[in-house]
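Ops channel
N.P.: pipeline sanity check, posting one input/output pair.
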């Protein structure tokens, strides 16, 4: 099994400067996920990854690239390069402003598809979302001799079925087993995700080539430092980013804010801004948001916002709060540090891998510790926050160009 080497801290990870090999392999990117999400007003983390890959392939002039999707009932369909460029342009413009969701006709009208073309024996098929991975056997063209590389973002539903939707663990098990059994190579976003795949490889008795390639941070987050987020409330605030679901541990933060409201005068209480849609299995959190008498005005649920507002809110926060029980990478941590914003995060291996020695890490079950840290960071003269800002000076954000500089030689060598 081939793995990438480097520091355990993603922000300072060493990346090879080796250029792509001469005679580089032809790549076909599966854009099934982008098509299915084209009507959404804001992206998920996986949407961002598939868009970054499509953007990177479109910029390549040293190798043949193509785009296709796998549609149930139709199989493989191919898409014109100019149509993909138009799709990405519209998606990025929509997701930056967080505009109204477009009709599903948007993608169909934009991308007239045609039957999938036969691919050469040196072609490599890239699948970078979990879309339809449970049906991977039907998506691999063994008869063409085409290699397949799959990006695995996490194994969380399999490892923590209690956090998944009903049936989610079983579906994700099938995705992971299919990927390990059928793909020629795998890409993962962290060493933690790589470790979590070990049991599936042991079960399959097969170990595809594996690359650890951390996600990149979009430049807009680094450029947002000091920008102004429109607000009528001048009180300091903290930010929590992510779908409201059990593993994100919003309940801890709401209990902390309720306890703080009982002890701190209203004029000195910081706010908590929640960014992300309401997800599943979250009745206790929703009850607190909708029925608690202590939280109105202190906890603001903004839901989904465009990237422009997200970057501005992040840049002006006292800290990003990430009390998750499980993550595959922890992109908000990297985005916050890239924006020059402190992070208070769960003490779990993947977040330490992402943030290195910069954030303050706390047990996700230790409510009193979180309350002390938040109370301290809310102060204008917070020593703990100042210390983290000093640590941040030596942190380097992972970038997409580094990601692809590592990735391309790996793909050419499969």
């Amino acid at each position: 099994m081939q793995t990438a080497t480097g520091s355990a801290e993603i922000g300072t990870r060493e990346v090879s400067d080796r250029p792509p090999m001469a005679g580089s392999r032809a790549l076909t990117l599966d854009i099934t996920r982008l098509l299915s999400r084209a009507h959404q007003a804001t992206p998920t983390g996986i949407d961002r990854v598939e868009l970054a890959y499509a953007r990177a392939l479109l910029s390549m002039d040293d190798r043949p690239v193509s785009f296709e999707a796998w549609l149930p009932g139709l199989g493989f369909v191919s898409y014109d390069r100019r149509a993909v460029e138009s799709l990405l342009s519209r998606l990025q413009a929509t997701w930056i402003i967080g505009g109204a969701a477009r009709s599903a006709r948007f993608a169909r009208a934009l991308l007239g598809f045609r039957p999938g073309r036969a691919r050469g024996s040196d072609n490599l098929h890239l699948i970078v979302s979990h879309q339809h991975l449970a049906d991977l056997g039907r998506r691999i063209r063994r008869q063409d001799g085409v290699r397949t590389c799959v990006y695995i973002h996490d194994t969380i539903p399999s490892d923590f079925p209690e956090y998944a939707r009903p049936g989610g663990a079983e579906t994700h098990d099938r995705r992971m087993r299919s990927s390990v059994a059928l793909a020629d190579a795998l890409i993962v976003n962290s060493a933690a995700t790589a470790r979590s795949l070990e049991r599936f490889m042991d079960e399959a008795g097969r170990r595809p080539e594996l690359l650890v390639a951390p996600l990149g941070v979009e430049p807009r987050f680094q450029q947002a430092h000091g920008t102004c987020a429109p607000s009528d409330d001048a009180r300091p605030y903290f930010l929590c980013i992510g779908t409201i679901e059990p593993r994100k541990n919003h309940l801890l933060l709401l209990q902390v804010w309720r306890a703080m409201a009982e002890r701190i005068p209203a004029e000195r209480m910081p706010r908590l801004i929640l960014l992300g849609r309401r997800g599943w299995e979250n009745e206790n959190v929703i009850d607190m948001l909708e029925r608690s008498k202590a939280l109105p005005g202190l906890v603001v649920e903004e839901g989904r916002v465009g990237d422009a507002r997200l970057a501005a809110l992040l840049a002006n926060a006292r800290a990003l709060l990430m009390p998750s029980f499980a993550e595959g990478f922890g992109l908000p941590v990297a985005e916050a540090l890239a924006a020059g914003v402190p992070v208070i995060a769960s003490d779990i291996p993947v977040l330490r891998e992402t943030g290195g020695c910069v954030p303050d890490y706390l047990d996700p079950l230790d409510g009193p510790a979180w309350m002390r840290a938040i109370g301290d960071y809310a102060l204008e003269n917070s020593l703990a926050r100042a210390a983290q800002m000093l640590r941040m000076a030596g942190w380097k954000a992972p970038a997409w160009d580094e990601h692809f500089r590592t990735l391309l030689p790996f793909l050419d060598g499969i």
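N.P.: looks fine end to end. The first helix runs from residue 32 to 36.
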